[in-house]
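User: I'm preparing a small set of examples for a lab meeting where we compare how different chains pack in three dimensions. I only have the primary sequence for this one, and I'd like the structure in token form so I can line it up with the others. Please keep the answer compact; I'll paste it straight into my notes.
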Amino acid sequence: YPLQARQNVFQPVKHLCILGGAMRRADADVYVFRGAPRNGAFVYLLSRLLGRRWVYNVASDEHLGSFVDDLPLPIRKLFTHALGNADGIVAQTAYQRDVLSDAYGADSTVVPNGYPAVDGPISYTAGEGFLWVGRLVESKEPHVYLGLAERLPDHQFQLAGPVDESSAFQIGVRDRAQEMDNVTF
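Assistant: Understood. Below is the structure token output for the 185-residue chain.
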């Protein structure tokens, strides 16, 4: 569903209604959510209101720690309740499984991202530039990468990541990258 930049205090309620309508129209048997705890708490709530199953897929270690700790108390309690009552939880690592068990009393299934384990050091050969791939959010610091590109104008840089058109930060990173001669966005 299309998100809009926050225009007033009622915008989150509008988004919740839009999401609920989309979920109702989808009429899924199971709703799987992967992402930030705040949104996960509301997808859980809507899933239960629709009488459907809910599965949480942990996207990041932060989603079991600082992201939860920073939530307002009612949303934090809803998310904690959601984890304890999920129909399934998918963790990426044994660490996430252990945190879910220890901190939330929740069982989970570890499904690794699929990168094979290496037996030893990976050989290195000189490349032809620098590559940065990730979400364009401040915590990942793509702006620092662009600062490096500015200081090394004789080297080629590539920056890959999705842009949320409602995020001034992400738009700024994209626009800055596109203005630089040694950066391919």
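A couple of notes for your slides: Residues 57 and 155 are 38 Å apart (CA to CA). The longest strand covers residues 30-34.

User: Perfect, thanks.
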